[in-house]
Amino acid sequence: MWSVAIIGCLYNLAAGALYTVVTYYLSSDFQLSASVVGNVYSIMGAMALLGSFLAPVLTKYMRIGRAITIVCFVSLFGTIMITSFADWRMTMVGYAILSIGGVMLNIYTFTIRQKEIPNGLIGRINSVYRMILTISFPLSGLILGRLASTFGAKTAFIGTAILMGIVTLFIFISKLPAYEEQGKKACNVS
């Protein structure tokens, strides 16, 4: 359970304030109008919704631990895309990928918490988990905001990519990829 909490905290630390930094980046570096930025974020919302539909589909074909591993790897790829390209459209494609992955990871970690925490402890553990995740959002704003204002938005994106790399590395060294729900066998797709 602690690995799930640490992954959620680090993921939120990496991507929690990215929305604000990307908005700043689109308006200051690319001089996009508020209506274009609004349309871009409407598309991002649709991508997050798509992630909520994809999450159960992926776990039909593999165990949830492996699905988390794949989702974090895909989120890392999206973060690297945000960092690598100078075109705002490619930045948005990367952010869309990250949005899909973030929603899927949230669904998977919530599922694990619901399955693994005994009923008598669920309130206490969920409150600690919520506190850990909630603290990471303002810290993300502090870190990414300071990086963006001091060194530019691209540096904040690089910081996000580094943190996302740490999340992915942590998943690989934890036992999470081997996690499988009790009593459920995933389909073997060969």
Automatic annotation (TrEMBL):
Mind telling me which residue stretches traverse the membrane in this protein? Answer: 32-55, 67-86, 92-110, 131-149, 155-174
Q: Name one GO molecular function term.
A: transmembrane transporter activity
Q: Which Pfam families match?
A: MFS_1
Keywords recorded for this protein, A-Z = Cell membrane, Membrane, Transmembrane, Transmembrane helix, Transport
Q: Which ranges carry the Major facilitator superfamily (MFS) profile domain?
A: 1-190
Location in the cell reads: Cell membrane
Classification via InterPro entries: MFS, MFS_dom, MFS_trans_sf
Write out the GO cellular component annotations. Answer: plasma membrane
- Top-level taxon in the UniProt lineage: Bacteria
Q: How does it sit in the membrane?
A: Multi-pass membrane protein
Recorded coiled-coil stretches: none
From the Swiss-Prot or TrEMBL record, give the protein name: Major facilitator superfamily (MFS) profile domain-containing protein
